Structures are given as C-alpha cells and as structure tokens.
C-alpha cells in the first residue's frame, strides 16, 4: 500500500494525472492556516482549482452566528434581484447573452449599488407601464360602453320622437273622443311631475351576465330595466389584465335605494362602471375625446416598452457575468464560514480532503493568493494524520463517467476498494448484448447513439428534456451496448431475425432436393463447420428452438460462473490491498472452493460435453452428485475418474461452509484479547496503511468485543453466500430467457407482419405492413426491449457480481469548485 501512495503522490506534475479507475485516488487530510487579509482570494483560487473538499469546522454554530453571515445575506439579496431581472427578460422575450460584450471587472459593493439602482428603475418603469396600461384598457372599455350604450339611447330616442309625433297627429284629427285625461294632460304639461329614472352603465363578464341579471331583478323586486349587448371580441380587463368576453349593460332604476343596491351588485360581480350622458350629441363628442386619449396613451405605452426593453437588453449583456460573480462570491463566503477563526482574529484555519497528486497545485494556488493579495505572511500548508475515512475520488472522462455512475447508483466505493466500474465498461454492454443479440437492431441503436455523439458539443449546451438528457448522458454506454449487440447478433446470425451466410456457405445440406422442412436429422454435413456463429441452416428448422435454447442456457451459466469468480477474485485483491489476511484465508479461499466445486464443475461438464459430443444428461449428473454420490454414472460418465472427482468436490464444498463460518469470529476475538492485553501492537506508519489498520480495529478497539454479534454477522454472510451461489447462478439464466424472447418477438414481427403483408400482392397492404413492422420494431424491440435488457444487466451487476466483493459504503469526494456551481446555488 505504501508503494501505491508513493506512486500516486508523484503523479501531479502534469496538468492532469493519468486515470486510474481500479483504485480511488489516494487522499490526504490537509490543514491550511491563511492570513485574514488573503482568505477571500485564497478560497477563490482554490475554487478555481477545484481539488479541495473543505470540512465544516463550525458545525456547532447556526448560519446566523457565523462570521460572514451578513455577506451571504447581501449575496442572497443580489441573487434575488438577478432572478427578478431574469423573470423580466423572460416575459419580454429577451435571452441573456451567452458571452458578455464587455468583460469588465466590477467590485461586489459597486455591483450591489448598481443592481439596486437598476431594480428601482425597472420597478418604477413597470409601475408606470402598468398604470398606463390599466388606463388604456379602461379607456377602451369606456369607448365600447359609449358606442354600444349610445346606439341603444339613439334608437330609443328615435322611437320616442316618432311615437310623440304620432300621438300629436292623432290628437289633432281626433281631439274629442280619445283625448287624455286631465291627470295625464297635467303630467305631460308639467315636467316637474314626471318620474325621473337614473341609469348605470358599464361592462360585466359574459359568463356572469345571467346571474347578474337575476340578482338585479331580485334586489330591486323587478323595479329596474336592464339592457345588455354582447361585445364582439374579448376585451382586456383593466384589473386582471386578461382577455375576457364581456357584455355592455345599462340598468335603469328609480330611487336612491335602488341605485345603492345596483352599485353594490356591480362591485360584487366585478362589473366595471363608466359614466354616460343621455345626450347623443355629447356622447359622440366624448367618443372622439376618448379615441384621442387612447391613441396618445398607445404612443406613450409603446415608448415606455421600448425604453424597458432597451434597459433589459443592457442588463442582458452583463447578466451572465453578474450572475456568475454573485454565485462565486456567495459560494466563497459559504466556504469561509466553514473555516475556523483564530483567537487573534488575524488568520483562519481550514481543513479539508485533497488528492495526493494535487499537493503541488494547492500549494501553488496558496502562493499566488498570497502574492496577489499583497499579504506580508504566506499561508501555511500541512498534512494531518487522522482516523477518519477519506472520501472516494475517481477521475473520469466523458466516456467512463456514465459507467461509474451506474456503479455509484448502487453505492459509492469505500476508500480505495476495488472499483467494479473498470469491469463494468466491458461486462455491462456485453451482458446486455447477450440478451439483445441482433446485428440489425444493434446497427439501429448505434446510428441513434452516433447522432448524440456527433452533436454532443451542441446538445451539451442546450436544455434537454428529462428522458433525452438521460439518454444523452449515457450515449457512450449505449454505443458500447450497440457495438456488442452487433457482435452477438453476428454470433446468433440474426438480422431482424433473418439469417445470412456472411462468413461462407452453410455446412449442412438436405439429403435430397425434396426435403424442405428438414430437421437436423434430415441434414447432412457437406462442408467444413460454419466459421463464425450459428450456422444459418439452423434457423427455420424444427430443431432450431431446442438447439438455440440449449446453447444459450449453457452460455448463460458459463458467463455467470465466470463473472461471479471474477467478483470473488476481486475480493482477494481487496483483502490483499488492505492487508486483511483473515479475509483471504477464511473468506476468499472457501468461497472460491465452494462456488467452483459445484458450479465451476458444472461449467467444466458443459465444455467437456461440447468438445466430446457426448449425450450425457447434465441435470442427472448434478442432481445425483448430491443424492447418490457413490452410484455409478453409467452412460452419463463424460471422462474417467469423474465419480472420484465428484466425491472430492462434494467433500470440499461441505468443508468450505464451516471454514467460512467458524474460524473468522474466533480469530477476531483472539486478536482483540491480544491487543488489550498488550501482547500485540500495530506499527503506525505515515501513510494510509495506518488508516486502514485503524479502521479495521476501531470497531473493536474502543468497545467491548461482542462475540455473539460477530458470529451472527458471519453466520448471515455464510448463509447468504451458500444460498446466493445457487440463486445467483440461476439468476444468470435471464440471459437465455431474454435472448429467446427478443429473438422470438423479432421473428413474429418479421413473419406475421412483413411476410404476411408481402404475400397479399397488394401495394397498399404492403405499405401498411411495412409501417406496422417499423413502428413495432422501434417501439417494442428498440425501446422496450432495450430498457428491459438494460435493467436486467444492471441487476446482474449490482446483485450477482458486486455482492461478492463490493462494500459500497463510502462517500463521494465533493470539492469546492466553481465549475460545479449550478443554478441551484442561488
């Protein structure tokens, strides 16, 4: 382990150290003592570097008790103003410039003043604009009322004049018989005795007009007259600013009490009232005045909008620079709040995790900060020794990142344990392809993936939907899956379920020309074996399914046993790396023996049967290996000495169970007693060796050793492994099941859709058949089957492979880095 650290420590001379995914980067806990005058600039430079994870040394203090609480509050207020500007720009359809036109350096205090002034100015412009817009909408409504209600008054007045003339004419010709009574004459002669009717006019929402009429009728007990006229187009409501369909109304009433009731009802229904005169001449004059005001207001509003847009465009040019600056400052002060202030208040103390290779880079950043801040005293950098478990840091690139994320979704690796991500890069797409083997579908998947890869620069800068973003993030995983699917598809010899003679002619032919639907027995071998993959003659024969089932089932077991053995071998490398001899002798060795005594032996039988062409029943061999181990194998014997070998393997499997269970808890108890009696001491070195020893013994060194607890824990692990060896091997049969399902679905779509449509000799039916085939292939085989095979491959890695060696109880290295700042930081 010391060699590893010395190697890791010397890798920081270049810009980027070489990637080493098998073990996480060696980490060190560092302490930096920074003079107070250069603290801000130091943290800023370390944020640019992005290779230091600060520890919170003020965890006992609330956010308001910390040193830089006021600065964070100021930054939060500035971020709020910037969010306000963004909302205003979004409403105006203005997008912030990706690059500022003028990259000017601005002080935080100056920026705070400038943002405050801009916000006040923008709020004032918005307030004035809203007032003008409301007045404009009110005038538009007023004009509608004048027009619609004016038409009503004009028509009523015209009919009243015509009626008066008719009455007068009637009185001249027939004055004696139908003359009015004395009272009527008196009323007509004396205007002061006529009943005065008042009226209220305005607009009411169309959907409320019926209810409005009913309430008016009930409130006035019918002593009113309502006239409503629908407005042709929806009008903008002055209060809400939304388009609403409205009716112009005029309510006639008698008496002050009725007026009061009508006004209250208008207010309740959100009806906007507008004054109206009975004089038609004055109405026309008012319409002209209102129209003049509307045109003036429209001009004023347009000028105001242009001014507002210009202001927002000017903000937009600098917006990204300001936003980035505020987010940086806020994150710097958040980090400064995590540092401990010295008693003298002349320096701050920082502690944090850093990769060993970054030591020189961190020290360079500290020197630059001291020089640039004109500090008289430099920062002090020192490495601390601790019992804490360091964070896990893997250096990934755009290709390996998605594979590492697959592993991290299960659990972040413990510090420097073997990383399954290295093997996942190959095994994950390969196991997917075993279930998705069709080189036609693989090519379709590859083309879709290449689209994302070739356009990754453009797409990475765009905001994509959830599903598209997830697909784009895993584009290299999909590419590997597609390439392996083409490979396994060539082995299965399936192109949309159709076989091709790509690597030569078939090795088999019919005995005579009449055999069409031949079984394998009706075929004779006429050439050398087909060089690569499944012979095309197997497809379409009656023995195709039994043959491919047998092949894929046995391949699944071989692949499963190989991957589980890889997992157990990795547990050996973990134990050796952490110098844990107990795990090597009492975990790795018995597990390897148990798995291979049973399923390693089964894999051997499968290979021997393939090589010899034997007809032995492997089910029978494995079952009676347990039930009757001493019986003769008879025709199921594959090689001499098989019976003796089976007895030895069975005995080894039985021995390995107590070997896993008993010695480890007993030896752990013995080690604990020796340590506490002073008979055994561990040397503490200056590398992470001491850390690992401390971690290994910390659970036992400071507490009472609970033998029963350790024994039960070991018992659970033993039972889990023994039962898991069977269930995990059976779980790999999903490779066979999904491969069969994919092949059969593909065959059904080809034969029952495409070939069936072709057989009708009708161009329309053929086109419909092709369309159905394309949509079925894309929807079912390229989307649903891809997702299904992906999830099954994921399960095989997480459960069957990783549980053999991977603890996954670490925590991820989260450095303070400006590059990782997202919008959420606001």
Automatic annotation (TrEMBL):
| Membrane topology term | Multi-pass membrane protein
- Where does the protein principally reside? membrane
Q: Which GO terms describe its molecular function?
A: ATPase binding; proton-transporting ATPase activity, rotational mechanism
Transmembrane region positions?
430-454, 475-492, 555-573, 585-608, 644-662, 763-784
Please provide, in alphabetical order, the Gene Ontology terms of the cellular component aspect for this entry: vacuolar proton-transporting V-type ATPase, V0 domain
Q: Where do the coiled-coil regions begin and end? A: 101-135
GO terms, biological process: vacuolar acidification
Where in or outside the cell it occurs: the entry states:
Membrane
Pfam families listed in its UniProt record: V_ATPase_I
Domain of life assignment: Eukaryota
Query: Which keywords belong to this entry?
Result: Coiled coil, Hydrogen ion transport, Ion transport, Membrane, Transmembrane, Transmembrane helix, Transport
- Tell me the leader sequence span: none
Q: What does this protein do?
A: Essential component of the vacuolar proton pump (V-ATPase), a multimeric enzyme that catalyzes the translocation of protons across the membranes. Required for assembly and activity of the V-ATPase.
Entry's family note = Belongs to the V-ATPase 116 kDa subunit family.
Protein name, as recorded: V-type proton ATPase subunit a
- Source species, please? Phoenix dactylifera
